[in-house]
Amino acid sequence: MIKERMEEVREQIASACRNVQRDPSEVILVAVSKTKPVSALEEAYQAGARDFGENKVQELVEKAEILPKDIRWHMIGHLQRNKVKYIIDKVWMIHSVDSLRLAEEISREAVKHQLCMGILIEVNVAQEASKFGVTVDEAESLIRQIALLPGIRILGLMTIAPFVEYEEENRKFFAQLKQLAVDIEGKNIDNVTMKYLSMGMTGDYRVAVEEGATHVRVGTGIFGERDYGA
Ligand SMILES: *Cc1c(COP(=O)(O)O)cnc(C)c1O
User: Fold this and answer.
1) Could you tell me if the CB of 55 is within 6 A of ligand 1?
2) Quick check: CB of 35 below 6 Å from ligand 1?
3) CA–CA separation, 213 vs 26, rounded Å?
4) Most C-beta atoms within 10 A of its C-beta, which of 31, 78, 79, 164?
């Protein structure tokens, strides 16, 4: 079942790429496995998944310990500073950086472990009160400050679009994130590239791909509905 769903998502990505003449190899499918048991991740791994997204530190660490070492773990959820030390040498990229203080902690831990951590800046393009992320207007100034830190490299932007009935409703937000990335790239800030755009989830990844996503974060579309229990 997971294998079939993944194939379906890959086909949808390829078809969205064809619509705008993009090369599907530019789009990384991040399988969002939060709340799902290791057996489900193993199934996705067997079907070719190597990029997995988690939003809780403890869950990510536990799964990373058990599963194959060639998996790239993506931290996609809100990250508390005191937990950075647990994931710094386990994650491939952190998608959800939205403050200087968090970036400073990532920098400190990265230097301690002699590594360079790739991060994305989370932007709340739709300005939803319930969501983390900086505003479009705040992004450049935060990026300029983070760019000065050692052990950290800004690779692009991330956004979580609103939950909508029709994915077309989110196209404008994805286009806005892309435009912001183009604007920032144009400023040629040292230690900053805008090569990655993490945007699009189960409900809207096709539109996100059409607007330039390089990472789509798909959970339900691969693993089925999440059961958060009682
Ligand atoms: C849970 C989650 C997703 C995946 O959501 P689906 O709608 O199940 O695809 C993507 N991004 C973030 C940040 C998430 O927390």
Assistant:
1) yes
2) no
3) 9
4) 31
Atom of ligand 1 nearest to the CA of 158: 13
| Continuous segment of H or E residues that includes residue 195 | strand 192-198
Delimit the domains of the chain by residue range: 2-223
Q: Using the atom order of ligand 1, give the atom closest to the CA of residue 218.
A: 9
- Separation of alpha carbons 106 and 46, rounded Å: 32
pLDDT band at 203 (very low <50, low <70, confident <90, very high): very high
Q: Which two tokens stand for residue 74?
A: 């993506």
Q: How far is CA 208 from CA 151, 161, 205, in A?
A: 30, 10, 5
What the block records as the tokens of 46 is 């067997």
Q: Fill in the amino acid letter for 141.
A: S
* CA 182/CA 166 separation, integer angstroms: 26
Superfamily of domain 2-223: Alanine racemase (3.20.20.10)
- 221 pocket-lining for ligand 1 (C-beta < 6 Å): yes
Per-residue pLDDT of 41-77, as tens digits, reads 999 999 999 999 999 999 999 999 999 999 999 999 9
Q: Out of 76, 205, 223, give the residue to mutate to test ligand 1, the one with the largest number of ligand atoms within 8 Å of its CB.
A: 76
Q: Which DSSP string corresponds to 99-161?
A: -HHHHHHHHHHHHHTT--EEEEEEB-TT--TTS-SB-HHHHHHHHHHHTTSTTEEEEEEE--P
Q: Is the full-model pTM beyond 0.90?
A: yes
